[in-house]
Every structure is written in structure tokens, then in C-alpha cells.
Amino acid sequence: MVTAQPMPQGLPLFDAARSMGVVFARETLPQDRFVTANGLRFHYLEWGEPHNPPILMLHGFAQTCHSWDFVALSLCDRFRVLALDQRGHGDSEWAPDGDYSPAAFQRDLHAVVQALNLHDFVLIGLSMGGRNAFSYAANHPERVKALVIVDAAPETRRAGVEHIRRFVQSTDELDSFEDFVERVRQYNPRRPVEQLRGSLQHNLKQLPNGKWTWKYDRVLRAPGRPMGSDPAYTQRLWGYLEALQCPTLVVRGAESDVVALETAERMHQRIPNSTLVTVERAGHLVPGDNPAGFVQAVTAFLATLEK
Q1: Is 41 helix (H, G, I), strand (E, B) or coil?
Q2: Burial class for 44, CB neighbours closer than 10 Å (0-12, 13-18, 19+)
Q3: Kindly report the CA angle at 292 between 162 and 19, in degrees rounded to 5?
Q4: Which structural domains are found in the chain, ordered by start?
Q5: DSSP sequence for 234-263
Q6: How many CB atoms lie within 10 A of CB 167?
Q7: Do residues 182 and 191 make contact, with C-beta atoms less than 8 angstroms apart?
Q8: What is the pLDDT of residues 257-297, one digit of tens each?
Q9: 163 membership: H or E segment, kind and range
Q10: How far is the C-alpha of 195 from the C-alpha of 241, rounded, in Å?
Q11: What predicted TM-score, i.e. pTM, was given to this entire model?
Q12: In angstroms, how far apart are the furthest CA atoms of the chain?
């Protein structure tokens, strides 16, 4: 019989946030909540007071709602922040039919927004979550007050996509938690090991055989699963961007290998009422690589909505 090992602990959230330069008003922890929508049970974290203006955050591929912990901590004194685990990720249900198509994510998002009765909210999405966010905002302009697209675009750089593919499709069971810490450190050396250890607490689980694995549906990392976009879908995404009606902030990591600067600039040109910001010392995973810089950019954008 294999004895389950306690989850290794990284820095406590507040200490980790301070070490990354994140400023927050008070030490606040989120509430774990669940909602059933589109036939699935979704997990989300709720930060802040329910009467505050709402923000909904969507993580990237193979991540969880905890990807937004530092950002939510910084914003939750002024906003009601909801960070969603999308289908197949974190503590949300996996798709029983293995459907992780863009259309499925859109149906989920629409159903979750309706179930939570969200109106006039700010929508923030990173990478896959960014595509899901701007697709939703284009199709539901009556719901979304403002949009933040984080290192997501209709077109991506092949080198960055291949880098992600190699990472997620490598051996997905390792002997120890620390083996995963080292793997992620090699994949993204921008972050301190203590921060990686803290974030991986929410992204890994121990199996009955004692090994550790990712906390998202194995279908998503199956060898041969397409990770790019076909030309028709790419064109549709550009159309969604041009159809946006709300104020939009486009955020790119200065060292991103996924979204080229030229692509981000084209997005800025084609999105009505948009602003483009580059966050220094950040790659593709901007809110994790430089959360203080990301919060600064988002806070400045949100302040313009109050004028």
C-alpha cells in the first residue's frame, strides 16, 4: 500500500505576493464555490465583497483559477473577483465526451455568467482564457463592461506553441512533487522556486500509486492533439476582435514567445477603443511572471472606466 504524502508547502500566499512586489490592502483569502452550468459542475474562487463591481477571470491552458491569486488579492478590496476553473481544469468537472472545443468553452462561459447573474462585469482572460474571453465579449456585448486580453491572439508564434506542446505532452507522472517543481523551473526560469512550489500546490495531485500528476484532464495533453488554429477559426477570431464594443486592454509579455509584438499591434489597430500595454520581465504567463507589473497595467485601465 502506498502512503499518501502531505502536499509540500511553498511560501504562504501573502508572503509570496509581497516577495513578487504585489501590493494589497489587506490579507484576504477567497471562498471556494461551485456552480452547475451547461451540464457540468464548475469550481471558482470568489474574492471580495459581493456588492463590489464584478470581475471574472479565465486562466490559460493547463492552469487553474489559482493562476490569478496574486492579481485577485490586489484587486479584491475594490472588486468582487471571480476566478473560474474552466472545464477539464482544476476542481471543475472534466468533459465526459472529451469535448474541449472553443464552442464548448463558449457554452460554458455563457451558462456560468447566467447562473451567477453577472451583468456589466469586467472580463479578463489569459492565453486560452483570453481567446475565450474576447470571443464571449464579442457575442455578448450587453453583458461585458470591459475586457482585458492577456497574451492571447488569433495568431500565435509556432516556436511558443511548440514549447508549450513539448512541456504538456512530456511524461505526466513523476515520482515526486519536487520533480514537477524542477520541470516547471526549466520550462519557465523567470519565477523563484518558492513561487513555483506554491502555485503547483493547486495544479498537482498524488495518485494512488504514490506518483504525482497534473490536475487537469489527460485528454488535453494527449499526443497528437491539435494545439494550433485552422485558418477559418483564425479568421473568425479576428472578426470577434473587430466586433468588440467595450473598452479593451491588450496585454503582452515583453518576452512572450507565443504572441508576437506585431500581432499585438495589429490587435490594437483592429479593436475599437483599445489600449496596448507591454509588461516587462514577463513571458507568455504575464500575471505569474510579473504580477506587480500586470496589476499596475490593469489598475490603470480600470481607473479609466470610472472617468
Answers
A1: strand
A2: buried
A3: 100
A4: 22-165+230-304 (3.40.50.1820)
A5: HHHHHHHHHH--S-EEEEEETT-SSS-HHH
A6: 15
A7: no
A8: 999 999 999 999 999 999 999 999 999 999 999 999 999 99
A9: helix 158-168
A10: 34
A11: 0.95
A12: 62
